[in-house]
Amino acid sequence: MRFGSSQLFVIVLLALLAGLSFWLQKTIAQPDVAHDGKLRHDPDAMAENFMIRQFDERGQIKYRLTAPFMEHFPDDDTSELKSPTLTHYRPNAASLTLTGKNAKVTSQGQTVYLWDDVKAVRAATPDRPEMVARMPDLTVQTEEGIAFTPSPVVITEDKSWAKGVGMRLDNNASTFELQSQVTGLSYPRRAKK
Length: 193
Description:
- The chain is mainly β and 193 residues long.
- The chain is built from one helix and eleven strands, in the order H-E-E-E-E-E-E-E-E-E-E-E.
- It has a single domain (45-185), classed as lipopolysaccharide transport protein A fold (Sandwich), CATH 2.60.450.
- It has one helix at 5-28; strands at 45-55, 61-73, 78-82, 85-88, 96-99, 102-105, 111-122, 131-141, 146-157, 160-170, 175-185.
- The chain is elongated.
- The N and C termini lie far apart (118 Å).
């Protein structure tokens, strides 16, 4: 049996179309997704008046995290908190209290992401007045005692103030560092008599 060139062209064209159709179907086809709920971000546990404390090796409290409401999510092993308060303690130093409207805590509590009206307050000491820093968000590394944000920050202490964009706070050294666009006004503290 002999095929003419026009018949051979039609057979090659049909084979090519069949191959392209097969390739297109494999490329576009979605993989089968298990519908067991593991990919959903639904809470598996909720708590009211939540509180967790971390202690150092000497049994002294290192920090305390409280919130009126907490939800735990099993898909990424995180917890979300409403109106959280994170207080860091150090021996012979003022406490540092961090608050916000919302927070997300990683599985082991090593990182806390605070957002919406975040406030960091260093308690007053006999030598210094209370210091308050306000920002829209803050990432806290609880074990290292540091926190940072790339956002605008306003810091006040008595009549003195400073503002800038981006901040790194080191609770161990009692320091904060504004990263850029820094302005401020510092009033001398009055000597106690």
